[in-house]
Amino acid sequence: MTEPFPAPQPSYLSAVGSPKKWVWLVGAPVLALVLAAPAWNSAPAAADVAQLTIAAPVSTLAVKFSPAKQDITSSQRNAIRSAQQYLDYSAFSRSGLIHQLEYEGFSTPDATFAVDSLNVDWNEQAAKSAKQYLEYTSFSRSGLIDQLVYEGFTRAQAEYGVNAAY
Predict the structure, then answer these.
(1) pLDDT tens for residues 40-56?
(2) Deepest in the core among 28, 53, 69, 118, taking most CB within 10 A?
(3) Nearest in space to 157 (alpha carbons), one of 117, 130, 118
């Protein structure tokens, strides 16, 4: 019997070569990420920042952090960061943001502390929420006010938001 001829390899496999190159191709990026991770976590803590202004990409919303006290727990600091991120992404009522943080697993006191630590213009949040609703569906003025109240805005905040959106 004759020995079979080795099957030709595709050109993209020959560029890789030995298994040692695979280790370097996969290992080098992983090593770079592992070494860079501590730098990502060295961002200033929310408690160390005297005043932080974050502008939302869609509106002119400004959120400022004003800590009531400097010695806050890591859970409170993380809740503050999460609250800021949520406000950057979407509009929330005060109670809606507290409920969202609780859903994330933060305790009610930590969620409340985080939301109350931020200087948020809840009227502007209501206006932003009303505009977001009107972008994807139709509402009557009274229906939109009722929807915003259902979300946790006060009646005055909801009316302000609807007036700004119409």
Answers:
(1) 444 454 444 444 444 44
(2) 118
(3) 130
